[in-house]
Design a protein that fits this description.
By secondary structure, this protein is α/β, with parallel strands linked by helices. It folds into two domains: 2-28 and 112-209, Diaminopimelate Epimerase, Chain A, domain 1, CATH 3.10.310; 33-105, Roll (Urease, subunit C, domain 1), CATH 2.30.40.10. Helix content is 30%, strand content 19%. The strands form three sheets. A four-stranded mixed beta sheet has the order 5-4-1-6, with helices on one face. Strands 8-9-10-11 form a four-stranded mixed beta sheet, with helices on both faces. A three-stranded mixed beta sheet has the order 3-2-7, with no helix packed on it. The longest helix has 15 residues, at 136-150. The two termini are 12 Å apart.
């Protein structure tokens, strides 16, 4: 059933493992406005414009987080402040226009390290909260609670790929197949630790990988 459900979602065994391996090895990099600026700056370097903060960012994706969760394709920045949303607007002689070519722009995040990208990239339904589990019993409870929260159909995967370590558990070991079966008897589970700490699945997941 696990393999059938994942295939219905367009996930093959090879694709699942490729995605899991890629996420465990490194974070996925979003295209940034700074990189786009280097590649697609619409004007050449002008010493007289050094320090100018007038900028139009166009052909991108901006999540405004307004009351309607609007997504716009352009913003205008004047003297370092956003003054136009949804369009670029007029620019002075030292203004720049950067074509983002569909890239998503996010604010500069300093030492965030919150694995928010993994939640969207990892296969299956993320159960990232197990990073805070202090024991295998607590980890089991978190998996069960996540399944109930999602109301996920039987056979679908519950995953946590990297970002956690068995040293946070009182038992200092991975949960066994039987322990994961007890937590999720009707859902596939796949958990892999950071680095070379290993990975584990349950009986429903094992059917998918066989």
């Amino acid at each position: 059933m696990a393999r059938k459900n994942l295939k219905q979602q367009g996930v093959s065994r090879r694709r699942f493992m490729q995605s899991a391996a890629a996420m465990a090895a490194s974070g996925t990099l979003l295209a940034s406005a700074a990189r786009a600026a280097r590649e697609h700056d619409s004007r050449g370097h002008d010493p007289e414009c050094e320090g100018s903060r007038d900028l139009n960012l166009v052909n991108g994706r901006f999540l405004t987080l307004d009351a309607h969760n609007s997504v716009v394709s352009a913003i205008g920045i004047r003297d370092g402040r956003i003054v136009e949303v949804g369009r670029g607007g007029a620019l002075g002689a030292c203004g720049r226009t950067i074509n983002l070519k569909g890239a998503t722009v996010i604010p500069g995040l300093i030492d965030s390290h919150v694995h928010f990208i993994r939640c969207g990239q990892n296969p299956g339904h993320e159960v990232r909260i197990i990073e805070t589990a202090a024991s295998i019993g607590e980890l089991q409870q978190m998996i069960g609670a996540r399944i109930r929260e999602l109301d996920a159909p039987a056979g679908e995967f519950i995953t946590c790929v990297g970002g956690w370590n068995i040293n946070g558990l009182a038992e200092k070991r991975l949960p066994t197949l039987a322990e994961l079966d007890a937590a999720a008897p009707n859902h596939a589970v796949y958990l892999s630790t950071t680095g070379a700490g290993g990975a584990v699945t349950n009986s429903v997941g094992r059917i998918f990988f066989q």
